[in-house]
Design brief:
Length: 412
C-alpha cells in the first residue's frame, strides 16, 4: 500500500485505525501453498486467534483455507463466515468437557491435548474421530510466552506419556484420525522444526488409521527492516521430502496440515496513530500518540518491535524518538528509535500490525477500540466500526443506590 492511501484512510475513518491489505494476505497464503505444492493433500487452517474479523475469515475461505480454532466462540465465528464444519479444527486447552461436547455436535474436527479429557471423551463418544495434540518437548519460539512445545508447557500430551495414551485408546476403542503438534511462534531454525517433525512421525506409527498430520505453525515474520524470518520455501522442500517418504512408509495417503496465523496476516496489517504531543525532557524526546497498549499490547507484553514510520514526513531528517501511548502507566512502543522528524499532528504507521493487535485489544482506561479497514482492489472497506462511549456502557448494569444513612444501602 502507498503511504498516501494510508493517510487518506485516516482522513476518512479517523485515528487510531487498523488497516489490512488483502493482497498481502493472498501473497502469504500462496507462498505457503506453493512451498508444499508437491504434497497432493495439503491443507492450511488459518489460526483465528490472530485476527478474527469475519471479513478476514471470508477472504481466506475464498483462497481455500480452513480454520484453526481454540474456543467455541471462534468455531461459531467460522460457521457464521460460511466455513464447512469439516474444514475447522478445534484445539482447546483447559476448557470444560461440556464445551468440547458442544463443539463436537457442530461437526468440526476435535483435537484433544490432555489424557483426562481424552479418556472422558473417548468413553462417552468413541465413534467421534479425534486428533491428538502431542507435546514433542522441543523448545522453539522467540519468547517464553509463545513457546508452547517445551517440557514445562501446559499444552499437549507428553511424548513420554505415550503408553498411557495408547492404553486409553485401547480401552475406549476411540477412533484417532489425526496427530498434531505446535512448538511455538517465531521459529527461526528450520532444523529444530524438522527435528520436532521426526518425533511426530515416529509417534504417528502407533496409530494405524490416521487421515492427517498437523504440524501447527509458528513461522517467524520480519517485524523491522533487516529482520530475519523463517525460510518457508526451504522448509517446504525439506519437510515435503520427508513427509512423502513417511507417507509411503505409513502405507496410506495422508493430509499434511499447518495452522498459520501471524504468517498470513501480520505483514498485511498497518496500525495508524496521530501524534498528540512531542515532549522534550532532559534526556529523551517523546512522541506521544493517540493510542496505547490497549490497542497494541505486543511491545509491552512480549517486548516485540514494530517498525514505526512517519508517513506524514517520509523525506524528513531522521531523529531519535521514544514513541509512547496515552495509557496511565508505562506505555512504550519504541525507545530511542530513528524516525523521520515528527511534529504534532503527524501520522505514525506501525507495521506488522495484522496479528494479535486488534484481537488482543481492550478497553483499558475506558478507551474505545479503533475501527478496522480492509484494503481490497484499491479501495478501503470499513469492516468494523469504531466503538463509541455507548459500547463502553452497553453491558454494564446500573443499580439504584438509596440513602446511605439507612441500614438498607442498596436496592437492586
Amino acid at each position: 500500500m502507498r503511504k498516501e492511501d494510508l493517510i487518506n484512510l485516516t482522513e476518512e475513518f479517523g485515528c487510531p485505525l487498523y488497516v489490512y491489505d488483502a493482497a498481502t494476505i493472498e501473497r502469504q497464503y500462496n507462498r505457503l501453498t506453493t512451498a508444499f505444492k508437491k504434497v497432493d493433500r495439503f491443507k492450511v487452517h488459518y489460526a483465528v486467534k490472530a485476527l478474527s474479523n469475519l471479513n478476514i475469515l471470508k477472504l481466506l475461505k475464498g483462497f481455500g483455507s480452513g480454520l484453526d480454532t481454540v474456543s467455541i466462540e471462534e468455531v461459531r465465528l467460522g460457521l457464521h463466515a460460511g466455513f464447512d464444519p469439516k474444514d475447522i479444527i478445534y484445539t482447546p486447552n483447559g476448557v470444560s468437557m461440556e464445551e468440547i461436547e458442544q463443539v463436537a455436535l457442530m461437526g468440526v474436527q476435535i483435537n484433544i491435548d490432555n489424557l483426562s479429557i481424552l479418556e472422558q471423551f473417548g468413553t462417552k463418544h468413541p465413534t467421534i474421530p479425534v486428533c491428538i495434540r502431542i507435546n514433542p518437548h522441543v523448545m522453539a519460539g522467540g519468547n517464553a510466552n509463545i513457546s508452547v512445545g517445551h517440557i514445562d508447557s501446559k499444552f499437549g500430551i507428553s511424548i513420554h506419556q505415550l503408553p498411557h495414551l495408547l492404553r486409553i485408546i485401547e480401552n475406549t476403542k476411540m477412533h484417532i484420525n489425526g496427530i498434531h503438534m505446535h512448538t511455538g511462534s517465531d521459529i527461526l531454525d528450520v532444523e529444530v522444526f524438522l527435528y520436532a517433525a521426526e518425533i511426530l512421525f515416529e509417534t504417528a506409527k502407533n496409530f494405524k488409521s490416521l487421515d492427517f498430520i498437523d504440524f501447527g505453525s509458528g513461522f517467524k515474520v520480519p517485524y523491522k527492516k533487516g529482520d530475519i524470518e523463517t525460510d518457508v520455501e526451504e522448509f517446504g522442500k525439506k519437510l515435503t521430502k520427508r513427509f512423502l517418504a513417511f507417507e509411503k512408509e505409513y502405507g496410506r495417503e495422508l493430509t499434511l496440515a499447518f495452522e498459520p496465523g501471524k504468517f498470513l496476516v501480520s505483514e498485511a496489517g498497518f496500525f495508524l496513530a496521530k501524534v498528540n504531543v512531542v515532549k522534550q525532557t532532559t534526556s529523551t524526546v517523546f512522541a506521544g500518540v493517540d493510542t496505547g497498549f490497549n490497542h497494541l499490547i505486543r511491545p509491552m507484553l512480549y517486548g516485540s518491535e514494530h517498525y514505526i514510520e512517519n508517513i506524514s514526513n517520509p523525506k524528513g531528517k531522521e531523529r531519535f524518538y521514544s514513541v509512547v501511548g496515552y495509557i496511565c502507566e508505562t506505555d512504550t512502543f519504541a525507545s530511542n528509535k530513528r524516525i523521520k522528524e515528527i511534529t504534532e499532528g503527524d501520522i505514525l504507521c506501525f507495521h506488522n500490525a495484522g496479528a494479535y493487535c486488534y484481537s488482543m485489544s481492550s478497553n483499558y482506561n475506558s478507551r474505545v477500540k479503533p475501527a478496522e479497514v480492509l484494503w481490497l482492489n484499491g479501495k478501503g472497506h470499513l469492516i468494523r466500526q469504531r466503538e463509541t462511549f455507548e459500547d463502553i456502557l452497553r453491558n454494564q448494569v446500573e443499580i439504584d443506590f438509596v440513602n446511605t444513612n439507612t441500614n438498607e444501602t442498596v436496592n437492586a
